[in-house]
């Protein structure tokens, strides 16, 4: 979403009352204890200490995130490294049990749903919008599921539409009809011939979710539960339609010195991004998902082979190293090796999750401010460098 965080603050969304810090600390401690009991963390070594120092430096950067949490796993050993605070004004550290917005990393989940439906024979990668969703504009009719999943569809991005942005600024917590989001750009032609080039578009994964609903007759939220949450035992992942986050959560901020940081955690309704960026999960669940998704626990057979066919194209924001696009999955080639996953950014949050192709080595990397090539490009460069160090920490 290309609206500036500061413009959303000025829009005047109401703020929720803040719970006492003691209550937050108690809830966070209980969840952290559960995480440790489920998967004991490995002892840290010099490489982890060096990475932790870089996380701390990122938090101290002017305009940088108030909090960072990265979950690293190498085979059966899991480590959690944090820096900063989960909520300004408290000393509560980010926790594996904190809810947070996954932003465009949500696109992996719609990929997981649609690719399983391909494997089941309910969808085909060459199925077109014209065949599955005939109500959409005829100009879009030849766009295929494959092209939606690797962002070569040419669909105009509804989040850049002037009317959509006007409505968001008028009421950031407005509840949109998520299944009508493409109506904002229904009068626009394709940006290019489908399949001829790469252009990241939030419209793509809205259309993917609508195709999944059309061929199953089931709501996308139900498909997520049946095809993603249950198989991977994701108990802390939801797709809300409103703006609230369950406690405790990693608070997300706009940090623009010399102005005071602004809390954006609950400034926007998730209904305006839905399958393209609306998921909320904990670092613990997010990590479990990417291990399963990249590692083949959800997608198999010919669908997985197609998923791991790559072409030039960077995620948004760009992840570490050299990026290439597959089907609802990006390849990140770093100085230490290759991992597969996705990034995302949303007011208050920037996400990165990736794993090796066998799922045995993995990481999530979450910071509590938004950065991309338009907003804070210098910070993004620093974040990408530290993300690459995190990749090295799990591959070496």
Q: How are strands sequenced across the largest beta sheet? A: 2-1-13-12-11-10-9-8
Runs in which pLDDT lies below 50 for 5 or more consecutive residues are: 13-40
- H/E series: HHHEEEHHHHHHEEEHEHHEEEEEEH
- Distance between the first and last residues' Cα: 35 Å
Query: How would the global form be characterised?
Result: globular
The assigned structural class equals alpha+beta
**Approximate helicity band:** 25-40%
What features would you describe in this structure?
The protein has 396 residues and is an alpha+beta fold. It contains 13 helices and 13 strands. The strands form 3 sheets. The protein has an 8-stranded antiparallel β-sheet with strand order 2-1-13-12-11-10-9-8, with helices on both faces. It has a 3-stranded antiparallel β-sheet with strand order 3-7-4. Strands 5-6 form a two-stranded antiparallel sheet. Helix 3 packs antiparallel against helix 13 and helix 4 crosses helix 9. The two termini are 35 Å apart. About 7% of the residues have low confidence.
Question: Topology, please?
Answer:
Blueprint: H1 5-10, H2 21-38, H3 46-60, E1 67-74, E2 77-84, E3 100-101, H4 107-119, H5 129-132, H6 145-149, H7 162-170, H8 202-216, H9 220-232, E4 237-238, E5 253-254, E6 262-263, H10 274-277, E7 280-281, H11 283-295, H12 301-307, E8 311-312, E9 322-325, E10 330-334, E11 337-346, E12 349-355, E13 361-367, H13 377-395
Antiparallel strand pairs: 1-2, 1-13, 3-7, 4-7, 5-6, 8-9, 9-10, 10-11, 11-12, 12-13
Helix pairs in contact: 3-13, 4-8, 4-9, 4-12
